[in-house]
UniProtKB/TrEMBL annotation:
InterPro entries: ARM-like (IPR011989), ARM-type_fold (IPR016024), PBS_lyase_HEAT (IPR004155). GO terms for molecular function: lyase activity. This is HEAT repeat-containing PBS lyase. Keywords: Lyase. Pfam families: HEAT_2.
Length: 215
């Protein structure tokens, strides 16, 4: 009989969370997370290039700038464009994220952008969308991915609850996201869900998640 694995120390959890946040930020820059329109947010500024100071804009002008970035044509949005707007863009992005009347593609891009601009403040709005069963499935998929970027392994418990979601695409996205986060806790929730999941595509995502979560 195998002995139970002791829970990781708080120091270890903090280290894992920091590492995972870095992974999701890198993944976002590589274009792993894309909006409904297929446009990725790219981290194109080099590590040696100094960050530009945020610009202060009148409220009306700032909103216009944010919406223009969200509605940009095909092509990557450079991180530096959001960095120049700074955290003053957070309230506008949060409003778009939670606006059920907004176009789904705009909401998905706002979710990814919010996770990039201010993960700490953005996590609450992003979680609200993930838990909103009336929101479009593709928007909630973006929310699942972005929540992991914002919170790292601390998001596992919140994501695990959505493995029983009524929407197949949401369950698939959550399974893969948990796998990318990795760790014993993620493996456990994936293993617990697999025997009761009936949809073939979701079962496949759960199995892929377990593979990704391998040490």
């Amino acid at each position: 009989m195998s002995m139970p694995t002791p829970p990781p120390s708080s120091r270890t959890r903090r280290s894992r969370a920091s590492s995972q946040r870095g992974w999701w930020l890198l993944a976002l820059g590589a274009g792993i997370f894309t909006s409904t329109g297929g446009t990725a947010l790219a981290l194109s500024r080099s590590a040696t290039e100094p960050a530009a100071a945020p610009l202060s804009s009148p409220p009306g002008e700032l909103r216009a700038q944010v919406l223009a970035l969200l509605d940009a044509a095909q092509g990557p949005i450079r991180e530096e464009q959001w960095r120049r707007l700074g955290t003053q863009a957070v309230p506008i992005l949060s409003a778009v994220v939670t606006d059920n009347s907004s176009v789904p593609s705009r909401r998905s891009r706002a979710i990814a952008s919010l996770a990039l601009v201010d993960p700490t403040q953005g996590a609450r709005s992003i979680q609200e969308v993930l838990d909103d069963t009336h929101a479009p499935a593709d928007v909630r998929v973006s929310a699942a991915q972005a929540l992991a970027q914002c919170m790292g392994v601390e998001a596992i418990g919140l994501l695990a609850a959505r493995l029983a979601d009524r929407e197949d695409p949401v369950r698939e996205a959550v399974a893969l996201t948990l796998g990318r986060l990795g760790g014993q806790q993620a493996r456990q929730v994936l293993e617990e869900r697999l025997p009761v999941e009936e949809r073939p595509l979701v079962r496949e995502a759960l199995q892929r998640g377990l593979t990704l979560a391998e040490p």
